[in-house]
Amino acid sequence: MNARLAAMSQASATLIVGFVAALIAIWGVWTQRAIARRRATFDHISRTEADADFIAARRKFVELARSGEGLVKWADKDKEKTEEAQSIKLVLNDFELVAIGIQRGIIDEEFYKRWFKSSVVQYWGHAQPFVAELRRRTSNGMLYYEFEQMAGWFDENKPPRRSRRWG
After folding, report:
1. Which of the residues 9, 10, 85, 91 could staple to 61 if both were Cys, CB 3.0 to 4.6 A apart?
2. Long-range pairs for 115-118 at CB < 8 Å and ≥24 separation?
3. Is residue 10 part of a domain?
4. Which tops the pLDDT comparison, 8 or 145?
């Protein structure tokens, strides 16, 4: 009887140790993913803040947005190859990529939001007429949709719709 009790105790102890080890492994993976996500966010922000072409594009975006005409005229077909339209699209594409990165769990939403929250909302406010005209002209209602959604999350302080999958 004592041998049987000892075997059961040993099996229970093995099960508990295995369960604890599994929890530690899961915690380790989760922690490393969070660190990697924050690191990717930091790297992205650092690159865009140091990239001369992107800084120039952002400066041009702000200059055009603050002009009396705004950005909408640059959505015309005859202006799509201009430096101005290209600068606008470069800035919008960056925000679109960030929004997708947040949804996929590649970019850390809280980190990015702390750095860029008010700017995201302001940039979308300036870009919205441009995007609306571009969508109308191209019959593509999905252009810059993810950026639009991100501006909404940030403006309303709501969490994003997640689309990440395990693995």
Report:
1. 91
2. 115/45, 116/45, 117/154
3. no
4. 145
Q: Are 101 and 107 in contact (CB under 8 A)?
A: yes
Q: Looking at beta carbons, which pairs linking 76-83 to residues 24 or more positions away fall under 8 Å?
A: 76/133, 76/137, 77/137
Our measurement of the distance from residue 111's CA atom to the centroid of its chain's CA atoms, rounded to an integer in Å, reads 10
What's this model's pTM, rounded to 2 decimal places?
A: 0.80
Asked whether residue 56 is assigned to any structural domain, the reply reads: yes
In a domain, 94, yes or no: yes
Assigned domain for 141 exists: yes
Q: Look up the domain containing 70 and give its range.
A: 41-156
Residues 47 and 101: their CA atoms lie apart, in Å, by 15
Report the 10 Å Cβ neighbour count for 76.
13
Residue pair 153/124 in contact by the 8 Å Cβ criterion = no
Instruction: Report the alpha-carbon distance of residue 153 to residue 121 in Å, rounded.
Output: 9
Q: How many domains does the chain have?
A: 1
Q: Return all residues near 108 (Cβ < 8 A) that are at least 6 apart.
A: 34, 37, 38, 40, 41, 102
Cβ count near 119 (within 10 Å)? 13
